[in-house]
Amino acid sequence: xxxxxxxxxxxxxxxxxxxxxxxxxxxxxxxxxxxxxxxxxxxxxxxxxxxxxxxxxxxxxxxxxxxxxxxxxxxxxxxxxxxxxxxxxxxxxxxxxxxxxxxxxxxxxxxxxxxxxxxxxxxxxxxxxxxxxxxxxxxxxxxxxxxxxxxxxxxxxxxxxxxxxxxxxx
Length: 170
Hints:
By secondary structure, the protein is mainly alpha-helical. The chain is built from 9 helices and no strands. Helices cover 77% and strands 0% of the residues.
């Protein structure tokens, strides 16, 4: 029982130290504040239920992030419904043609990437994780993560340069 109590304390510490990163990771999948918060809450619950399955405490953060990823993917699968936005909401969300914000272009281009590329880029550059940690979180081998990172960055560059060309033509 004593070992379980120590693991729980380590898990609480891990969750506390990484709560912002966990939220951003969940949000990168679902792009919705409430769903991202639900995912983090659900992942915390799952982590406490399965803490005794954890073999090495050194990989606690990667293990918790893996739970975030699988919980996010589960929610996406459940939701597979199209959300229709009325024109008024669409106008509010999308910048008008004369506004140009490079950061919005980056955010939009990131959102347009397939999940497998977006997750790797976000974990690497926004969460500052090493390639090996990303591989552990996503249950992929290191060479797959490197390939996806390279391909994702290539796709991102193409998307951003296309947006720049569109902007220049206006």
